[in-house]
């Protein structure tokens, strides 16, 4: 009996193949997904990991056995799968483990229109069925009388055309851009998306290779953008772009090779989206910079603060009718993209903003990057709740200080704030700090970590 508690996460399925799950379980997940969602048709895609094709086909067999028609789109990025789900109005399943090492794989599932499936929206029920059927094969329902069909479809041209219809780069000044695909799915999608645009592209690690021979496909880790930074400097490029393994996140470096904060990108894109839809709501999670709600208000929009995580962002997008949402992790969500996240569309916005004027990127984003911050600092602890409570007790009664617990512990004081959140999957506490000056950031960091690690 497999222990699914280790692989069914808050938003997806993710674990080591074949140790924690395999094609047999993937087939059960396909059948359970159809039974829980009621999907009559679904689209399935996968990344370049060695285990992805077999797992995705097994999931499809399970879905077909429950009577659903399957459209296979093969190799794709996660946001390309979301495009297919939205454009074809079908439920979807993407096989990827994003930035995790090669031995991992996973499933991101959605209902038609790219509506997410998470613990509170069907994933718990799917897990329960898979556990029941895996433990008692006789309990699994027999295949339906009329099994579904399977067809192949190429959606990459439509995906690229849709993105380019949302951001016009035809009239920008020519730009030199270095792109590090990290041997992930950006190497598959970028040539089609960027084709014919006024861009001189230097490609890095575009060969699809799910063993990640050059570096981990996680651009938020500073070690993984060192090569990109060096190439931007050596080629005098205007900017650099780094994508994660499934190419749904995009990280930006400026012409100096310096990282651009995802909060600054969120603020920049928010200003551009508000120019198209004045007065709209913009979603930001609670650990993005204060500059994000400030820029939103300055541009006539309404900032809406939410918890970290795509299911919360997408729910608030739907509830408020927001035009755009951004997270500190370089996930960017668009109403024009079925409220789903696409780093590629954010990248097009950045290049359009840069190419529409003559300043370098570092000067352009300076208006959106206003406060020193700590970045995310992780601490391994034995008792997340006790350590968090100790920090709360130390700060709660200080004059001018407010505390909220929307997502972990957020403490705000005069000219500063910090958030301390437990990891959902590891015994970690994650600390983010921002203040008016670097000295205050350092002081808060030392004090909070002294309590957390003491």
Automatic annotation (TrEMBL):
Key words of the record: Isomerase, Magnesium, Metal-binding, Phosphoprotein
Ranges for domain Alpha-D-phosphohexomutase alpha/beta/alpha: 7-135, 159-257, 265-371
SUPFAM superfamilies per record: Phosphoglucomutase, C-terminal domain, Phosphoglucomutase, first 3 domains
Signal sequence interval, chain numbering: none
Swiss-Prot/TrEMBL cofactor(s): Mg(2+)
Keyword rRNA processing tagged: no
Domain Alpha-D-phosphohexomutase C-terminal: start-end pairs: 376-449
MF (Gene Ontology): intramolecular phosphotransferase activity; metal ion binding
Stored InterPro entries: A-D-PHexomutase_a/b/a-I, A-D-PHexomutase_a/b/a-I/II/III, A-D-PHexomutase_a/b/a-II, A-D-PHexomutase_a/b/a-III, A-D-PHexomutase_C, A-D-PHexomutase_C_sf, Alpha-D-phosphohexomutase_SF
Entry annotated with the keyword Cytoplasm: no
GO biological process: carbohydrate metabolic process
Family: Belongs to the phosphohexose mutase family.
PANTHER family: PHOSPHOMANNOMUTASE
UniProt protein name: Phosphomannomutase/phosphoglucomutase
Biological source species: Streptomyces hoynatensis
Source organism phylogeny: Bacteria, Bacillati, Actinomycetota, Actinomycetes, Kitasatosporales
């Amino acid at each position: 009996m497999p222990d699914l508690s280790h692989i069914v996460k808050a938003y997806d399925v993710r674990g080591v193949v074949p140790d924690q799950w395999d094609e047999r379980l993937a087939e059960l997940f396909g059948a359970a997904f159809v039974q829980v969602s009621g999907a009559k048709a679904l689209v399935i895609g996968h990344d370049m990991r060695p285990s992805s094709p077999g797992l995705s086909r097994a999931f499809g067999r399970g879905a077909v056995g429950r009577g659903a028609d399957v459209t296979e789109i093969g190799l794709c990025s996660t946001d390309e799968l979301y495009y297919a789900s939205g454009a074809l109005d079908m439920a979807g399943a993407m096989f990827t483990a994003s930035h995790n090492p090669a031995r991992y794989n996973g499933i991101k599932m959605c209902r038609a229109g790219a509506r997410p499936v998470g613990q509170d929206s069907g994933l718990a029920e799917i897990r329960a069925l898979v556990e029941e059927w895996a433990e008692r094969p006789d309990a699994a329902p027999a295949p339906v009388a009329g099994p579904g069909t399977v067809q192949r479809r190429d959606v990459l041209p439509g995906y690229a055309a849709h993105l380019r219809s949302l951001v016009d780069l035809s009239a920008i000044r020519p730009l030199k851009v270095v792109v590090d695909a990290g041997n992930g799915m950006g190497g598959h999608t970028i040539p089609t998306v960027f084709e014919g645009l006024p861009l001189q592209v230097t490609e890095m690690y575009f060969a699809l290779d799910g063993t990640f021979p050059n570096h981990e496909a996680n651009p938020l880790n500073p070690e993984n953008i060192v090569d990109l930074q060096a190439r931007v400097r050596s080629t005098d490029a205007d900017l650099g772009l780094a994508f994660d393994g499934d190419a749904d996140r995009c990280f930006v470096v400026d012409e100096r090779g310096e990282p651009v904060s995802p909060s600054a990108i969120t603020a920049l894109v928010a200003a551009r989206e508000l120019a198209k839809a004045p007065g709209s709501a913009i979603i930001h999670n609670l650990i993005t910079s204060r500059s994000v709600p400030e820029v939103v208000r300055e541009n006539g929009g309404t900032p809406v603060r939410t918890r970290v995580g795509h299911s919360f962002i997408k729910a608030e997008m739907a509830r408020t009718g927001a035009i755009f949402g951004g997270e500190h992790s370089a996930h960017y969500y668009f109403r024009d993209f079925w409220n789903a996240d696409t780093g590629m569309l954010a990248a097009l916005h950045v290049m359009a903003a840069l190419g529409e004027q003559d300043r370098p990127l570092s000067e352009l984003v300076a208006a959106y990057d206003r406060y020193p911050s700590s970045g995310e600092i992780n601490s391994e602890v034995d008792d997340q709740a006790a350590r968090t409570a100790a920090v709360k007790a130390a700060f709660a009664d200080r004059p001018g200080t407010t505390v909220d617990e929307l997502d972990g512990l957020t403490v705000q004081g005069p000219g500063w704030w910090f958030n301390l959140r437990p990891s959902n999957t590891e015994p970690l506490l994650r600390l983010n700090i921002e203040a008016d000056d670097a000295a205050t950031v350092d002081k808060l960091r030392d004090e909070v970590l002294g309590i957390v690690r003491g």
